[in-house]
Amino acid sequence: MTKIKKLTEEQVNPDTLNGQTLAYLGDAVYEIRIRQHLIKGGIVKPQVLQREATYYVSAKAQAALITKLQADDLLTADELATYRRGRNAKSHTKAKNTSLSTYQMSTGFEAVWGYLELLGQEARIAELTSWCIKTVEEGGIEQYDFK
Question: Does residue 27 have an active-site annotation?
Fold first, then answer.
């Protein structure tokens, strides 16, 4: 087992973290909010939850959402910089069922959520997640065809 140096939360500066690290956290942050949304919406069967969640959390959906967030000018300068850092981070894993560029955009999307989580920006996470949910449910990403 690897020894992990204990850090206090005050010692973690998200501006100094690798985009992949931010995306690792952001993936969980975004997905848990989507799962809560689906369950609170009355979907309780695990197989249905999994299928419905992909409309929000798949690499293709996240790439389309981040593209629309940028097109609608909804991200701050720091969020855009974080997105680019996540998108441009060297990955040691291969994209599954999607193109490398879509996977990279999705990683950038997740990095934004990780960044905001580490900053304690719960209101901003809620705002962006609500926008994503509304956009998906209104068909706002269907024009983006990511492979």
Answer: yes
Q: Which residues contact 111 (CB under 8 A, 6 or more apart)?
A: 19, 20, 22, 23, 26, 82, 83, 85, 86, 87, 89
* CA–CA distance, 145 with 63 (Å, rounded to integer): 10
- Integer CA distances (angstroms), 46 to 11, 38, 49, in order: 38, 11, 5
pLDDT in tens, the chain (147 residues): 566 666 555 678 899 999 999 999 999 999 999 999 999 999 999 999 999 999 999 999 999 999 999 999 999 999 999 999 999 998 777 777 889 999 999 999 999 999 999 999 999 999 999 999 999 999 988 877 776
**Token pair belonging to 131:** 């926008």
Catalytic hit among 27, 73, 78, 145: 27
